[in-house]
Amino acid sequence: QAQHRRDLEEELRDLSNQVAALGRSLAEERGRSLAAGGALQALEIAVGGAQARVGGACRARDRACERLRQQQEAGHLLWAELEAARAAQAGAELRAQEAESQRHAREAELEQLRQAVAAAQHARRRAEQERDDMAAHVPHPPSLTGGRDPGGLQAALAELREHNRALQQRLQQRQAQV
Q1: Beta strands in 10-112 (DSSP E)
Q2: Burial 125-154 (b: 16+ CB within 10 A, else e)
């Protein structure tokens, strides 16, 4: 019986050691399980954070795309305004060139009129001088005209004066236009 008792005690020690080892193993397993659960929870939190960041990035991208579209529309409008301004500038430059051309033409015409007036005044002075020279050389018989110049010279002088008056009026009109 003593032997049996020692065998039982030894068996009891063995079983006790096995229970202790199983307890330690169970505690280790619980620790690993808790650690794995914590890691899983940490991964779930990280995944949730990443999903939130992805969603935020997508919304930011959508807002950026909308701003880009608006900027492109504004750019198209500005381009159209620029083209219209360029066309208006080209039209204004063309009108300015036409006005300058007309001004040169009017100046040339005005110069021609000045020359015509000068020529008419010169012709009038020459005709008056010729009249005076002829009047000085030709003896005048007493006549019914009261000592006036001969009729032909007087008519030519009147015609020159009328022509000179018409030229001066045209010159004044052109100067008023310019």
Answers
A1: none
A2: eebeeebeeeeeeeeeeeeeeeeebeeebe
| Residue-wise pLDDT tens digits, 87-112 | 999 999 999 999 999 999 999 999 99
pTM here is 0.40
Q: At CB < 8 A and 24+ separation, what contacts does 120-123 make?
A: 120/160, 120/163, 120/164, 120/167, 121/164, 123/160
- Residue written as tokens 């620029």? 82
Q: Is the dihedral of CA 25, 29, 35, 39 positive or negative?
A: positive
Cα distance between residue 21 and residue 35, in whole Å: 21
**How many Cα atoms sit within 13 Å of 27 on the Cβ side?**
6
70 CB-near residues (< 8 Å, 6+ apart)? none
Angle in degrees, 0-180, between the axes of helices 151-177 and 2-137, rounded to the nearest 10:
170
3-class SS at 81? helix
Q: Which two tokens stand for residue 118?
A: 């000068």
Q: Which of 169, 150, 159, 170 is nearest to 124 (CA)?
A: 159
